[in-house]
Design a protein that fits this description.
globular; 3 strands
């Protein structure tokens, strides 16, 4: 498996709103275009519960999530 990037909620929101600095936007855009994006299930939840979403925002977020690899939560029993 090749290199992927775990992108956090803040970065996704700034990318979708086009409020990242231009240089950063281009780097993140290249990562997204190449399909190297992973987000955690927590980021997925945060994006879908983002306040003040309208119908077009929801469609864009769902499309973005659809192209992302979702990293699940993993719980391990800690032996003491």
């Amino acid at each position: 498996m090749g290199q992927t990037y775990l992108i956090d909620t803040s970065c996704v929101i700034k990318y979708l709103n086009e409020t990242l600095p231009e240089e950063s936007y281009q780097v993140v855009n290249d990562i997204f275009i190449k399909g190297l994006t992973s987000i955690s299930v927590i980021t997925q939840i945060e994006l879908l519960s983002w306040k003040q979403l309208d119908t077009s925002d929801i469609a864009v977020i769902k499309e973005f999530i659809g192209y992302s690899n979702i990293v699940p939560l993993i719980f391990q029993k800690i032996l003491t």
